[in-house]
Specification:
Elements: H1 32-60, H2 64-75, H3 96-110, H4 116-128, H5 133-164, E1 168-172, E2 178-182, H6 187-233, H7 250-256, H8 280-293, H9 298-319, E3 321-323, E4 326-328, H10 341-378, H11 406-427, H12 437-444, H13 447-493, H14 533-552, H15 555-580, H16 585-602, H17 610-618, H18 629-634, H19 646-651, H20 653-660, E5 667-670, E6 673-676, H21 678-687
Antiparallel strand pairs: 1-2, 3-4, 5-6
Helix pairs in contact: 1-3, 1-5, 3-6, 4-5, 5-6, 6-9, 6-10, 8-10, 8-11, 9-10, 9-11, 10-11, 10-12, 10-13, 11-13, 11-14, 13-14, 13-15, 14-16, 16-17
Length: 707
């Protein structure tokens, strides 16, 4: 049928070679619908001719007794039978018709010049001459169409061989009709028929395998090209990693799963997509805003998943679908008819799906998300400015971003959504009817492929989560550094309610000069503000930062992040208080208000904030007259320090005494220098306790984690 194999018939426009055409030899538009129609006509014509030839062969090469039996059967048939009813075959004991049919099929399929395989190869080669990725995608569609039509053809040929080459004898029905019943078939004929069917299976498998390997290599190549082309369209640069760094490749998965020996290895392809991650220097030059409008744009993030799902769909059409113990190809034929058996078919399908999934894990993880996450972390400057901030920040002005741009959290949220979409769109576990990786692999029953796919998925999420955690911890470090900058640098450089100089810590122990930290406020000073400028500004900035963090993290992650921030904020304040600050009675009131403001902002998320409650009780030591301190420490009914009551019982002796030692009146200046005041020595002597402030203080004993 040479007219059906003219390659130019699959192209619309002027036929190739027309001297009146100015078009390039391969510049014509490829019409997929026309190609599908012509291929359908071709395979239908081949099946019709073969079925007719089967009947002719059985008639021509029948034994002499066949004609005698056939004539006897014809004479007894009903007189009303149509004249063109084919004469049924009698008992055929010779295997010659089956051998001739086999030669005919072999010639039709395997003839090196005009056979079905040769003409299909000519068609595919004509597409290759186009030399661009557009024609490559059309070739993929052509692969699928050819496979679909060929599967239907071989199913018809096998049915025709069993129906037309197995002898049947005429038997009159009670109503005078012409019926046929199966004649007795010799064992030799049965073996010949089975051999012919097996031969058809082998021919189908040879035809399919020659296309499947080319299809899979082209599928993986074009999938990688389409994914990388998306980067090029948004102006993102890529770099080629040297060496084999594919963490999700099938070979690396086998190394981590020793003993895996799966028939799916037959589907390992020659093509291995190179790892071409986004260039991090280019990403950092983009900035947060350009990242959100470029690589992190929702449509850009989704496009590779669309290409991957298209690849999975074509792979299912090429290699068949499976369900339980039954495997069927796209035309409804039994997968075991492919020649290698049902097990081989299922393992091939599993190997192909695993190859596509592992390549996508490499691209979407190692080449796409991970470079962006690492760039986001590196774009954060964890060091605070060297100059003190100008406090306070007005509530009507934009809050300081504390080193973490709000777009950083939007980027984190999009990365998190992208990872979830990757799993939902490709893996899709426990989603019946999704036709995604998990469902297909479970249907194949290939436990080794399922194990390797799960390992690939685990590595993908582990790597992405580790980089994400590192970026979030970098953000936490950056915010912590800016807390120190606002609370310490800003708080100590600003005046407290109009009192002090530009620097209040020139001499931390010179109380007479009004120094000793922001809470060493002289007696009689007026309280002009409810909070210190530093804490007022810090609380304002943290509330604004919380809005961004809350929108980016899951409730569990938000709770962990904000609890960690609360602990760090507490430790920064306590370390500064116990090592550098002195607190007067008025300063204690301001400090108590500041602690309440910080406690309020710390409790926006998380549950572990007991350290703030303990601190609020300890602050009463600064607002209590000296003669009432003992009842605060041991309780009104307490007799001594071991009674377990009062502040000693709730906060501990060491913490209570160290906090008390930071009172502005705990030490007084004399001619011999700074000495403990009389009330302090009397109180410690009455309790029978040493002064812990006289020796080095281990600040780890006062950290929030101790609570």
């Amino acid at each position: 049928f040479p007219e059906f194999f003219n390659n130019t018939m699959f192209l619309t426009g002027t036929p190739k070679g027309d001297p009146d055409s100015d078009e390039d030899e391969f510049g014509e538009e490829f019409d997929m619908d026309e190609t599908r129609s012509r291929l359908s006509t071709l395979f239908h014509r081949v099946s019709e001719v073969c079925r007719a030839e089967f009947e002719l062969i059985a008639h021509v090469f029948a034994s002499p007794s066949t004609y005698k039996d056939a004539n006897n059967s014809s004479s007894t048939a009903s007189s009303t039978s149509p004249s063109n009813t084919p004469i049924p075959l009698a008992d055929v004991t010779s295997t010659v018709p089956l051998q001739v049919a086999r030669l005919l099929i072999q010639r039709i399929i395997s003839d090196p010049r005009s056979g079905l395989q040769a003409r299909i190869n000519d068609l595919l080669e004509s597409l290759d001459k186009g030399g661009d990725f557009y024609m490559g995608s059309k070739k993929l569609d052509t692969f699928v169409v050819i496979h679909e039509k060929a599967a239907g053809l071989f199913m018809i040929l096998k049915e025709g061989a069993e129906q037309n080459l197995i002898p049947r004898t005429a038997a009159g029905s009670g109503s005078g009709g012409n019926n046929t019943t199966a004649a007795a078939v010799s064992p030799a004929t049965k073996r010949a028929v089975a051999s012919l069917v097996q031969f058809l299976n082998s021919q189908e498998m040879a035809l399919s395998n020659s296309q499947r390997r080319g299809y899979l290599n082209l599928e993986l190549r074009l999938l990688h090209h389409e994914c990388c082309a998306g980067f090029d369209r948004i102006g993102a640069s890529m770099v080629l990693k040297k060496g084999d760094s594919r963490r999700y490749s099938i070979r690396s998965l086998r190394k981590s799963n020793k003993g895996v020996n799966d028939a799916a290895s037959d589907a390992i392809t020659d093509y291995r997509a190179p790892v071409m991650p986004l260039e991090k220097d280019n990403l950092k030059r983009m900035g947060f805003g350009c990242l959100l409008d470029g690589p992190l744009k929702p449509m850009v993030l989704r496009q590779p998943l669309i290409h991957a799902t298209d690849s999975l769909m074509r792979a299912r059409l090429m290699f068949g679908t499976t369900s339980g113990n039954t495997s069927q190809n796209s035309s409804g034929g039994n997968a075991s008819s492919s020649g290698g058996g049902e097990g081989h078919h299922r393992n091939s399908t599993a190997g192909v799906i695993l190859a596509i999934y592992s390549q996508m894990c490499t691209f979407y993880g190692e080449a796409y998300l991970i470079p962006i996450i690492e760039s986001l972390a590196e774009m954060l400057d964890s060091s605070a400015p060297s100059t003190p901030p100008s406090l306070p920040y007005g509530e009507d002005a934009p809050p300081h971003e504390m080193g973490v741009n709000g777009n950083f959290w939007i980027a984190v949220e999009r990365m998190h959504s992208a990872a979830k979409s990757f799993d939902r769109e490709l893996w899709a576990e426990q989603r019946p009817g999704s036709a995604r990786v998990w469902e297909i692999l479970v249907g194949t029953g290939s436990t080794n492929s399922i194990t390797m796919a799960k390992e690939c998925r685990l590595r993908f999420f582990r790597d992405v989560e580790e980089r994400g955690e590192a970026a979030i911890l970098r953000a936490l470090d950056t915010i912590t550094a800016h807390i120190q900058w606002i609370l310490v640098s800003g708080g100590e450089s600003a005046g407290m309610t109009g009192i002090g100089t530009s620097r209040l810590l020139n001499n931390l122990k010179n109380h007479e000069s009004g120094h000793g930290g922001p809470y060493s406020v002289p007696t009689g000073s007026a309280l002009e503000a409810s909070n210190s400028p530093a804490v007022q500004s810090l609380a304002y900035c943290l509330r604004a930062q919380f809005v961004h963090v809350q929108s980016a993290l899951t409730p569990q992650s938000l709770s962990a992040f904000w609890t960690a921030l609360s602990i760090r904020l507490y430790d920064k304040l306590i370390t500064r208080l116990l090592q550098h600050y002195y607190v007067s009675n008025i300063g204690g009131v301001i400090l108590s208000r500041d602690v309440e403001a910080l406690r309020t902002v710390s409790m926006l998320a998380g549950t572990d904030h007991q350290h703030w409650d303990t601190l609020r009780e300890l602050l009463t030591l600064y607002m209590t007259p000296p003669d009432a301190l003992k009842s605060i420490l041991v309780g009104p009914d307490g007799v001594d320090a071991t009674s377990g009551k009062g502040l000693f019982g709730r906060a501990g002796q060491l913490q209570s005494l160290v906090f008390m030692s930071r009172r502005a009146d705990y030490r007084v200046k004399s001619s011999n220098g700074w000495q403990k005041s009389g009330w302090a020595m009397k109180l410690l002597g009455g309790l029978g306790l040493p002064d812990p402030s006289e020796r080095s203080i281990n600040m780890a004993m006062f950290s929030a984690e101790r609570h």
